[in-house]
Design a protein that fits this description.
Distance between the termini: 21 Å
EC number: 3.1.1.31
Largest sheet: 6 strands, parallel
Number of strands: 9
Radius of gyration: 16 Å
CATH topology: Rossmann fold
Bound molecules: 6-phosphogluconic acid
CATH architecture: 3-Layer(aba) Sandwich
Pathway: Carbohydrate degradation; pentose phosphate pathway; D-ribulose 5-phosphate from D-glucose 6-phosphate (oxidative stage): step 2/3
Pfam family, one: Glucosamine_iso
GO molecular function: 6-phosphogluconolactonase activity
Catalytic activity: 6-phospho-D-glucono-1,5-lactone + H2O = 6-phospho-D-gluconate + H(+)
């Protein structure tokens, strides 16, 4: 595990930008394209704005989402909407390179299945294979959740599919599953906010409780794991 402690969110964002750029360009060199699974929430918004200001080969970059709230794509809570506003609407990325998670009017189960099919087709997967994203960006909540994998939910047990229905209380979400996140070539957590200090301590403990702190279940098998953290989350 690589840990980078940053004095503030702006520094953390710059660190993330440099790391992502390095991995995106390496993937394009090696395979002619780069695939990213993006985080939602508030922490990555500034990063997406900074990415939009870069001159990357957008036609060789494909973006997916690690999770999505079950709302229309133009809803203010939509992770897709946030990413479009901060980044995608500002660059010349072909629409076919943008792969949002479907939501309404499908049911959550049907939407998860539809995204599963899209990933299987895009990555040309054989039965039982998982997609391998070049970069997976994740956040963490103050309860230790990541993507939409919340404590003590059924989604934590799903290990035979790439996409499943997450549950934030009564609110359904779509989320990539633990095995999918663990197949990532470069998995990057961006965590800021003193309110997350306790969860971070629990998640990075030597014998963490993954049911209680799901971010602890992200241990990429063949890939790199990066924790880019604001110094305020280090418990004194
Ligand atoms: O859909 C979401 O909200 C995210 O994917 C979620 O997992 C997020 O990364 C964490 O809740 C941290 O959110 P903040 O960055 O807003 O603290």
């Amino acid at each position: 595990m690589n840990q980078v402690i940053c004095p503030d969110l702006e520094t953390l964002t710059t660190q993330a930008l440099m790391l992502i750029q390095k991995r995106v360009f390496a993937s394009i060199d090696q395979q002619g394209r780069a695939t990213l699974a993006l985080a939602g929430g508030s922490t990555p918004k500034r990063l997406y704005q900074q990415i939009a200001a870069q001159s990357w080969p957008w036609h060789q970059i494909h973006v997916f989402w690690g999770d999505e709230r079950f709302v229309p794509p133009d809803h203010p809570d939509s992770n897709y909407q946030m990413t479009r506003t901060a980044w995608l609407d500002r660059v010349a990325m072909p629409g076919s390179n943008i792969h949002p998670m479907p939501t309404v009017p499908l049911t959550p189960t049907a939407a998860a299945e539809a995204y599963e099919q899209e990933l299987q087709a895009f990555f040309a997967l054989q039965p039982g294979e998982f997609p391998v994203f070049d970069v997976i960006l994740l956040g963490m909540g103050d309860d230790g959740h990541t993507a939409s994998l919340f404590p003590h939910t059924a989604a934590l047990q799903v290990c035979d599919r790439a996409v499943t229905v997450g549950q934030k209380g009564e609110e359904p979400r779509l989320t990539l599953t633990i095995p999918t996140l663990n197949f990532g070539r470069c998995v990057i957590f961006m965590v800021a906010g003193a309110n997350k200090a306790h969860a971070y301590t629990q998640v990075t403990a030597s014998q963490p409780n993954g049911e209680q702190y799901p971010a602890a279940l992200i241990r990429p098998q063949g890939g790199d794991l990066w924790w880019l953290v604001e110094s305020t989350i280090l418990e004194r």
